[in-house]
From TrEMBL:
Signal as UniProt keyword: yes
InterPro entries in alphabetical order: Glyco_hydro/deAcase_b/a-brl, NODB_dom, Polysacc_deacetylase_ArnD
Pfam family, one: Polysacc_deac_1
SUPFAM superfamilies (alphabetical): Glycoside hydrolase/deacetylase
UniProt keyword list: Signal
Name of the protein described by the UniProt record: Polysaccharide deacetylase family protein
Keyword flag Signal: yes
One annotated GO molecular function: hydrolase activity, acting on carbon-nitrogen (but not peptide) bonds
Gene Ontology annotations of biological process type: carbohydrate metabolic process
Signal sequence, start to end: 1-18
Domain NodB homology: 179-304
Length: 374
């Protein structure tokens, strides 16, 4: 068993103030092993879980003023932050329990974790020494999980005044929590855009890989495609894929007076032109939607499709392989979930093939888009 000791600079590093616009990414080449079998996936998973758990534990010592400064906010919702922290701890415990099932095959990062108290205890003691086989990975991973936790806590601090994917309003909203361990769903936002037009490349790549995904489209962009191309062309484009809606325009649906019409028009168009591909899912732009919308979605037979693994490829924040590396790190941390690539950004054409190559022998699975959220 390779020993695991944590770097002593943890508390000092948490004093640094990161800009709210920063997004976390991790150079996966710092990890010394390929994910060439399910056991090695678990080893890497245990390492990321313990590192994030350490960051979460340290964050509990911050008072409200410290959090405001760190997150760059004047007003924060402490009750929301506390609720999200509790949910994260529950996820970490469940994930570590899955990840430690292979400890008899490789004991790296295996510690006695039986319940929440022992998880917190092990997170508090987790260290890597300079002589560790994983020493080169330790500091980049620590920095990644600090910044990633900042991202989550900032969204929690703003919720529900500013809605996002950080929390659900009810069972009609789905975010991948219900997927089995090691199972992931590919989704793509802004997937009917004409320029840049990455959707043909994406759908063809998935078909050649014997895979599928859920493509969320704007009604206005589907209409624009139909003005230039035939219905048959549209149907060929999305062959063997699933198509949900993001509304008529890419704008927040939380305070838009016509938000219901936006969704209804889009559903009518997509369902009519792509009956074989349509799935009754609404992906809210920016994750923003109304807290009181359940009666509408129930009446429409729709579910709200959120996500829990964000490649941060929107608006060019992260480039190709950087985005893929972030996704892989979060897959190791959360062990299942919904990935939301942005089809409008060219980064996906690099990130997706890189990700599939890295995970080809890792024992993970990809959820069929027709089975998701049922």
């Amino acid at each position: 068993m390779r020993s695991a000791f944590f770097l002593s600079i943890w508390l000092l590093s948490f004093g640094a103030l990161a800009a709210p616009s920063d997004v976390a990414t991790l150079d996966r080449s710092t990890w010394p092993e390929q994910l060439s079998n399910p056991t090695l996936f678990d080893v890497a998973s245990r390492a990321e879980i313990l590192t994030f758990a350490r960051a979460l534990l340290v964050s509990e010592a911050w008072d409200e003023d410290s959090l405001k400064q760190r997150l760059g906010l004047r007003i924060i919702n402490m009750a929301s932050i506390d609720a999200v922290r509790q949910r994260l701890w529950q996820q970490l415990l469940a994930n570590y329990n899955f990840a430690q099932q292979s400890c008899d095959q490789d004991a790296s990062f295996c510690f006695l974790v039986e319940d929440m108290d022992t998880l917190r205890e092990q997170a508090g003691k987790f260290q890597l020494g300079d002589d560790s086989y994983y020493a080169r990975w330790a500091e980049p991973s620590r920095a990644f999980h600090e910044q990633y936790l900042d991202e989550l806590l900032r969204k929690a601090a703003l919720f529900p005044q500013t809605t996002s994917e950080i929390e659900r309003f009810g069972d009609y909203e789905r975010n991948g929590d219900e997927l089995n361990d090691r199972l992931f769903l590919l989704t793509f936002d802004s997937a009917a855009n004409l320029a840049p037009d990455n959707t043909p490349w994406l759908t063809e790549y998935l078909r050649k890989s014997n895979m599928n995904g859920t493509f969320f489209v704007l009604g206005s962009e589907v209409q624009s495609r139909l003005e230039q191309r035939s219905v048959a062309n549209l149907q060929a484009l999305y062959s063997q894929q699933c198509v949900g809606v993001q509304g008529w325009e890419y704008r927040s649906h939380s305070h838009w007076q016509d938000w219901q019409d936006s969704i209804e028009r889009s559903v009518e168009l997509v369902k009519g032109k792509l009956p074989e591909n349509y799935v009754p899912l609404f992906r809210p732009p920016y994750g923003q939607r109304r807290a009181d919308a359940q009666p509408f979605f129930n009446a429409q037979g729709l579910q709200v499709a959120l996500w829990d693994i964000d490649p941060q490829d929107g608006a060019g924040k992260l480039k190709g392989e950087q985005s893929g590396q972030r996704v892989l790190t979060l897959m190791l941390l959360w062990r299942h979930g919904v990935i939301n690539f942005n089809a409008r950004q060219d980064a996906v054409k690099t990130a997706l093939p890189w990700l599939l190559t890295q995970t080809a022998q890792s024992g993970i699975g990809w959820e069929d888009c027709q089975d998701a959220f049922r």
